[in-house]
Every structure is written in structure tokens, then in C-alpha cells.
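ok so I'm stuck.
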Amino acid sequence: MKIGIVILNWNGVDLLKTYLPSVVEHSKDHVIYLADNASIDASIKWTQSTYPEVKIIAMDENRGYAGGYNVALKSVKEEVVCLLNSDVAVTAGWCDVIANRFHTDSSLAACQPKILDHKRKDYFEYAGAAGGFLDRYAYPYCRGRVFDTVEKDLGQYNDSINLHWASGACLFLRLSSYKEVDGLDEDYFAHQEEIDLCWRLRHAGYTVSYEPESVVYHLGGGTLATLNPRKTFYNFRNSLYNIFKNERSSFWVWILIVRMVLDGVTAFKFLIEFKLAHFMAVLKAHFHFYLMLRSLFKKRKTVGQMVNNNNAQNSQLSVVYQYFIKGDKQYSNNFK
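replied:
not stuck anymore, here's the structure
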């Protein structure tokens, strides 16, 4: 089975020079695409001259992660695709083992590899680590990373398991399933759109999984730095989107209210730490959420029509309580 490897790029020629060589070297049986989000640097020219086998999908504007991939995937014919960040180095066989998973399991709609840190190769990487989960208030956490605590890879997560969400840094998808649930939500623009997509795939009865035999190394922060207030804005706003659209329990409104209160606590913490840009980013996130309520009601109704089982239940623990009150900093400590 050939996989369509789609690398989304925006003015990232330096990242391409560093990371694309490993993708080309270790993906010879698959098809590589560069989906360019209207870059004004030499990304396309360099790729065409250096790796003419890479297919170019050029877009006329920067559509972000969700919009960029939604447009790009219209030009991809392979049954299984990999949405790959431009700052990811891959290893031998990284695609083949996951291609076999999709070939043998028709219920599998999304999968991620083991994601390690390119700067500290024996540690998991923040954005995905060994697979993602959601707590009762839709806080994302991973095997190998809870909030800002990242674990060393000691082989403790070398089992293949089902997840709540797979990382958008290296996200394998069955294209037919992706289309069935209407793809990525372009209102997210950036951050947590893969969580929303995987939640909808689980609502539709599909599974999301982790494959430890596939290993990649992610630089992280290649597009938007961790401490950038824009990232704070997108993460807080899009978490509220996720709950409103996808939480199907009878007390979903209560879950949303508690999450908003917890956001307020975080905003206050930013304020007393004099991180005024981040404080304003949280306020702006909530304001944008209120402005989108009419649209979100329509999307919630659409998601409700997809639900055909209870496959989309999240964890009932509170990761905030476990981490900040109990002091459990690692997934292996009572996060299962």
C-alpha cells in the first residue's frame, strides 16, 4: 500500500533543507507531496530543483493547517495519507509498518508513530509523544507528556494502543474516513484541529491508534513558538470549540462551564505573572468563542448526526487535579 505523504509548508525552506532529505530517503515506496501555503521564500523552487520526484501542490493563500490540508488532500489519490510537519525527521520503515496496520484493520481511521524530540532524541516530544488522550474537561495530554512534563523514552510505551487523538505533527489518515466526517475544521486555523478530527472519527465508529514501531523526530515550535501569545489564543479558543462540538454527555454544558472557569484561573495566573499578552490572549479566545456560538450550534448538530456508538468517551479523570493537586507528573502515575 502506497501512502501519500503530504508536507504542509509556509516559508519553511530552511526546515525543508534539514528535514526533507530523511523523508525522501526513507519513503521510496510512497508518494511525497509538498503542499505550499503561498510561501514567498524559495521553498518550491528549492524542492523542485533538489527533489524533482516530490509533487508540488501550490496554494494561492496561507490557509493554515486545517485549510491547507483540506485543499491539498483534494489532489492526493492514495487511500492512506500522512499529514507530516515540515520539521519532522523520519526513520527507516516509518511508513511501512503503519501502512500494514491500515491494510489489515478496516476500522482504523487515524494513527500516529512514536514522536521523539529531535533536540533530545531519547525524550518524547511535546506534540504527541506516545499518543494523545483527553480528560473530562477536554484537556489534552499524552503518554510521555503531561502539561509541560516530558518523559524520557525508556520503552515504557512500546505497546500499540487505541487513543483519543493522534498528533497532527505526523498524522496518518484513511482518506475515505477523513472525507466522511468532513475533514479538518478550517475555523480552527491552527492547533487542536487534529483533536477535533479524531473526536469526530471516534463518534463515527472508527479507531485512532498508536504504532511504536514507527519512529520520527520532531523539532516542535517550527511554525509558532511555544511562548507565542497567538498559540495561547488558538489553544484556549479551540479547546472550547472541541467541547461545544463534540462532547455528547448529558452534562456537557457543565463540562464547558467548568472548563471556562479553569481558563479564568489560568488567565489570572498570567496576569499576576505579568504575562499580559497571554492574559489578553485568553480573553480574546473566549470573546471569539462567543462570536462563533451560532456556527458552533450548527456544527454540534452535524456531529450529533455522525454518532453511532459510544466509542468517543473521554477519560473521567481531571488532569488538572492529578497534575497540580496530587502532583502526578507522568502518564504512568495514575493517568491511565
